[in-house]
């Protein structure tokens, strides 16, 4: 049986490297601060891309909104364990709430992966700055009713064992965020 929490913990320990500990990800995740202190890592101002475990590919996804909320964009990059780009997207989503935009970008990443030829060959990690979405997927009882159908589809895929969804600092999703900004029209 696939143990999502154990896999995330293993991946996190593999991902923490000297060049990936940044001020931003220490502030967003105190476990990183503990690793940095215990391991004596120097905090870097430029985060590195974290490779996936064998058998996984990773979608980094993000959203961006105009400050007045009149328009938004979503973007993402799918890469293999070596960081090679397989595909990327940048789309306009119009005027939606920030929470809906965060859900939409994760859903778009899932849909693109499912229709790709990589679906039968790899498991997927989706990394997003959308902490609320990740929390809802890991504990669906916290999901507002209006978003429950979107979340339940993600939860089912996680239990099928081929999807991991995790929150990362925005600095780890800089390229995906630029693609999201390009989607704003």
TrEMBL record:
SUPFAM superfamilies: Ribonuclease H-like. CDD domains: RNase_H_like. It comes from the Eukaryota. This is RNase H type-1 domain-containing protein. Residues 59-185 form the RNase H type-1 domain.
